[in-house]
Design brief:
Largest sheet: none
Shape: elongated
Strand content: under 5%
Number of strands: 0
Number of helices: 2
Structural class: mainly alpha
Length: 99
């Protein structure tokens, strides 16, 4: 009788193992199918049709004008000189972060 119980247990473990493998394979296949469907449905395009070439050319022209004025090769001095301010603790050094 003991040997029959061992065989039944081994058979049950094999069935559970096989069921687990099939469930894993099915889950992976379903995940892949859903991700492919979502990638095709939401391909990064907006639902409204717009003319991206006109906006990109407008942006590039405004960026070029600001870049060309600042890339003259000379440094500019700041409009105001830095001033020292006293903190409430009375220390004159700056601290960053910390507690």
């Amino acid at each position: 009788m003991r040997e029959q119980a061992i065989r039944a247990r081994a058979l049950g473990l094999r069935r559970v193992s096989r069921l687990t493998r099939w469930a894993l394979a099915g889950g992976l296949a379903l995940t892949g199918a859903l991700s492919a469907t979502a990638a095709a449905a939401y391909a990064g395009h907006s639902s409204q049709s717009s003319n991206p070439s006109s906006t990109s050319s407008d942006n590039s022209s405004s960026n070029n004008s600001s870049t060309s004025s600042s890339s003259s090769g000379q440094l500019q001095s700041p409009s105001t000189n830095p001033s020292s301010s006293s903190s409430s603790s009375g220390s004159s050094h700056a601290t960053s972060g910390g507690s």
